[in-house]
Structure formats: C-alpha cells, structure tokens
Amino acid sequence: MSDEQLNRVVGYLQSGVENGARTLSGGKRRGDQGYIVEPTVFVDTKPSMSIVQEEIFGPVVAAIPFDDLDDLVATANNTTYGLAAGIWTTNLSKAHSIASKLRAGSVWINCYGVTDPAVPFGGFKQSGWGREMGHEVLELYTETRAVTIAL
Predict the structure, then answer these.
(1) What would the mean pLDDT of 95-103 be, rounded to a whole number?
(2) Where are the domains positioned within the chain?
C-alpha cells in the first residue's frame, strides 16, 4: 500500500460512520507506522452509501440484510462496479444459482481472493475491461482485422 491508499481507505471508514453506518468491528488505522487498516465490518448501511457503492480495496465489508435471493442479487448488482463477489453457504445449489446472476468478473464460493493462472480474472461494468490470466489474456495482445474485397 501507500500513504495515498491508506488515506483513501480511512476516508471511506470515516464516510461510512458520518453517513450513519455502524462499525461492528475495526473501523480505523492500526498503529501509526505502516499502512495497516483494521478489518472492518459495517452494519446499518444504505444502498446509496459510498462504502456500499464503491470499490474500496481495503479490508472493509458492508453487511446488508436481504429478504430473499432476488433481493440479494438485485442489491449486489446495483453498483457501477463488478470486480468480484463472495458467497458463503452450505447450499451449493443456491450458490451456483446466485453466482450465475451476479454481474461480477469473479465469484468465489466459500473462499475469497483465490486465483489461478489458468483462470481468467477481470471485472464487469466499471471494474475493468478484458481479462488477465487464462487464455483470455491473449485477447489483450491481439488486433483482429477484417478485410473485405468485392470481386
């Protein structure tokens, strides 16, 4: 990390509290050296809050209650970003159903952040274009040309 990223994450933590979210755990920088932020769980969040809508790239989660799976998917997809999603459950059938509906480039089930060089990685929507890793990465280095001739 860097001073810039530390300040960015801490700014999100402050914004969450100022906008009415409550920290269940964490919520601040740890120590006065380095770039360590306490793992933070926010509750009492609203869909319009920046801690819900934006990619923080820090150890922060906004816990949001839901009424049913359709509500869950609609809330999760209601952002301009879609880099990754995580699902924790004992019901793998439901997990696969939800994963197929999420607009995220990576969906991890009962794990988070697991990568493999053979598996493509990249986001949906404003979380990026193209894919890193996997054979899909070759598309980043390919310029396709169509040539048409009338005879």
Answers:
(1) 94
(2) 3-141
